[in-house]
Amino acid sequence: MAGQTIGRKIWAISDGHIPSWSHGPEPEMTSHESLSILNASPVVAHVELNVYFSDRDPAGPYRITVDPYRTLHVRCNDLSDPEPIPKGVDYSVVLQSNTPVVVQHTRLDSRQSQNALISTIAFSD
Amino acid sequence: MAGQTIGRKIWAISDGHIPSWSHGPEPEMTSHESLSILNASPVVAHVELNVYFSDRDPAGPYRITVDPYRTLHVRCNDLSDPEPIPKGVDYSVVLQSNTPVVVQHTRLDSRQSQNALISTIAFSD
Amino acid sequence: MAGQTIGRKIWAISDGHIPSWSHGPEPEMTSHESLSILNASPVVAHVELNVYFSDRDPAGPYRITVDPYRTLHVRCNDLSDPEPIPKGVDYSVVLQSNTPVVVQHTRLDSRQSQNALISTIAFSD
Amino acid sequence: MAGQTIGRKIWAISDGHIPSWSHGPEPEMTSHESLSILNASPVVAHVELNVYFSDRDPAGPYRITVDPYRTLHVRCNDLSDPEPIPKGVDYSVVLQSNTPVVVQHTRLDSRQSQNALISTIAFSD
After folding, report:
1. Which candidate from D69, D72, D121 shows the least CB-CB separation from C120?
2. For chain D, what is the radius of gyration of the CA atoms?
3. Contact partners, residue B84, CB within 8 Å, separation at least 6
4. Would you tell me which of A14, A83, B24, C22 could form a disulfide with B102, CB atoms 3.0–4.6 Å apart?
5. CB of C117 within 8 A of CB of C101?
6. Which residue in D has a C-alpha nearest to residue A2's C-alpha?
7. CA nearest B56: which of B15, B11, B90?
8. Helix, strand or coil for residue B54?
9. D85 contacts in A (CB within 8 Å)?
10. How far away is chain C from the Cα of B4, in angstroms, using its nearest Cα?
11. Do D123 and A102 touch (CB under 8 A)?
């Protein structure tokens, strides 16, 4: 596998929004957003997230590490350092990594009794 | 952060359609389409939208500004100058910006009691 | 607008599938797949579709024209020449155009009482 | 058609997750993930999948062949050699092919009575 890396070092998601309420069994059906980060490279991925808002300065960096040949699914609801991401607020995320990774963004919106699920490969230059 | 810009200057969404009716609590669950525009650059983004239809000349330009290091979520339902985008009609959008931005397109369709949510990174050359 | 074209000349969608039944008011809530084709160029787009299956030779070409500065939303359910696309069968589509276009693929699946909606920008080399 | 190939040789999906339970008529409404692989090239596609996890070494390679001018929709639930992909666990997938293919990833999540459907074009460098 070594040498067969795939991915990019910088990624962005513009449509971030953690729904402000939920419906259904916890924690699987709690409204949330997650970032799936695949590190198919042979080195540890040191990932920095910066979060952009509509009416204030960006928050961050949030620091995440992903081991070699591993994937990590991060719930944005759980990010707390340097500060939690508020619910019900629009935001965007930029990720930077020292090694190529692949990033996908998923939202489960269970505000109504019907859960809605969206998922997109993040944008990379 | 300055210097760490990400994005492109021209974007397109071909599958535009504001659903013609809604179901659920207003305004969060109103059927709508939105464009999420991230400006991670150090300068103001001046964005122009042109809207294409199946049976008439394009409308626009609609002008939007996004401050440096900010994100803006625009509801297409709210665009009114030079003219509102009609509901229940297929359309496409082309965005042009003076500085690199990242654009994502989201639709909440609450025509049936079950809301459907789609979101895609827009196309960029 | 002329000169500000955006898009590519060849596109592919691998995950095609017209659901075999529907639930909800016709025709808006009929299970279907559609292709949204934006032609932001100053010339007529002559588009050819070829449809690939798992167990037989490809069908096509299906021929579609999109006027300059227009968008066209084609329901795959309605394609009939040279032959209709069967429901409940997996297929893929390759589109080729003489002028750059932007293609998005959308499926409304209303087989259960809850409609599911997916939409993706097609793949382009 | 020959000569009109489209696609890439390496693809990745970071957000893999086979839901652990289902709701609705089998097998159409069983929670599952699928990979749609279009081979529009004139040669047989020999595809290798490697599956990455959060807490163990990757599994694979899984070997799939797609005939020339054919599409194949693989249910991840059905992969068994060298080992099945566990349900309810986060994973990522990297696909490598000897000839250009187009890959799309779809999940039907029918854990609640309302089915949720997501689909994305996989990432390719």
Report:
1. D121
2. 15
3. none
4. A14
5. no
6. D58
7. B90
8. coil
9. none
10. 25
11. yes
Contacts of residue D30 in chain C, CB cutoff 8 Å? none
Q: Which amino acid is at C94?
A: V
Closest by Cα among B53, B55, B67 to B99: B67
Would you say residue D24 has pLDDT above 90?
no
Q: Which residue of C has its CA nearest to D114?
A: C114
| C10–D contact, CB cutoff 8 A | yes
Chain A CB within 8 Å of residue D24 CB: no
**Residues above pLDDT 90, as percent of chain A:** 52
Residues A12-25: tens digit of each pLDDT: 998 888 777 655 65
Chain A residues touching residue D111 (CB < 8 angstroms): 28-29
- The pLDDT value recorded for residue C26 is 60
Partners for B (CB, 8 Å, 3+ pairs)?
A, C
Contact residues, chain D, for C13 at CB < 8 Å = 102, 104
Asked if C15 reaches chain B (Cβ–Cβ under 8 Å), the answer is no
Residue B110 has pLDDT above 80, yes or no: no
Instruction: Choose among D38, D108, D116: nearest Cβ to C14.
Output: D38
Domain D8-121: which CATH number of 3.50.50.60, 2.60.290.11, 1.10.10.10, 3.40.50.11540: 2.60.290.11
Instruction: List CB contacts of B79: < 8 A, sequence separation 6 or more.
Output: B49, B62, B85
Secondary structure (DSSP) of C27-86: TTTS-EEEEEEEE-SSS-EEEEEEEEESSSPPEEEEEEEE-TTEEEEEEGGG--SS-PPP
**Cβ neighbours of A120 in D, within 8 Å:** 120
CA distance D80 to A116: 30
Q: How confident is the model at residue A1 (pLDDT cuts 50, 70, 90)?
A: very low
More confident of the two residues D88 and D28: D88
Name the more confident of B121 and B89: B89
Domain range list for chain D:
8-121
Entry pTM: 0.88
Q: Which amino acid is at B73?
A: H
The mean-pLDDT minimum among A7-11, A81-85, B120-124, C3-7 falls in C3-7
Contact across the interface for D115 and C114, Cβ inside 8 Å:
yes
Contacts of C28 in chain B (CB under 8 A): 111
For B18-65, how does the pLDDT look when each residue is reduced to its tens digit (9 = 90+)?
777 655 656 655 677 889 999 999 999 999 999 999 999 999 999 999
pLDDT tens per residue across span D57-70: 999 999 999 999 99
Q: Which chain C residue lies closest to B89 (C-alpha atoms)?
A: C73
